[in-house]
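User: Working on a comparison across species. This one is DUF2480 family protein from Flagellimonas aequoris. Can you predict its structure so I can line it up against the others?
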Amino acid sequence: MEKEIINRVAQSQLVTFDLEDYYPKGERKVLDVSEWLYEGIILREKEFRAYVDAHNWSNYQDAYVALHCSSDAIIPGWAFMLVASRLAPYAKKVVVGNLVDLETSLYQTILENLDVSVFRDKPVIIKGCSHKPVPENAYIMAMVKIQEVAKSVMYGEACSSVPLFKKKK
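Assistant: Here's the predicted structure for DUF2480 family protein from Flagellimonas aequoris:
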């Protein structure tokens, strides 16, 4: 006589939280200001402003933009602020840093506004693998936010999860 196979995971209260589900759609672009510096390392205000004025900002329409300088130049804060002021009418978001910094900033905004009440007193598993560039910091932010209300928090997949947090009784 054959025994019926029962999917205990499907019958449990376990809730899966997948950060990939919250990945903001939109193009990511990097704007390297080193190309606007004299010999790639010296910011001359007049020349820098000329490059900023001549740049086609509409190329950043509805994009998420990371501003950075790939050379070892010291960039004054006003320079990034000037560039950001030109990007503001076009870009969805602008940060100073690389693409990981940009993704982290996007997830920070999303997770700060996330309603976690659906996880109250439930075991939650934060899904580990993703095909989109979810930054490590997003997992940490999700963990901290979800553990405020969850019964327990795990990482990975239902079949092979790592326990991270369990609410004390």
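For your comparison, note: Residues 15-24+103-166 form one domain.

User: Helpful, thanks.
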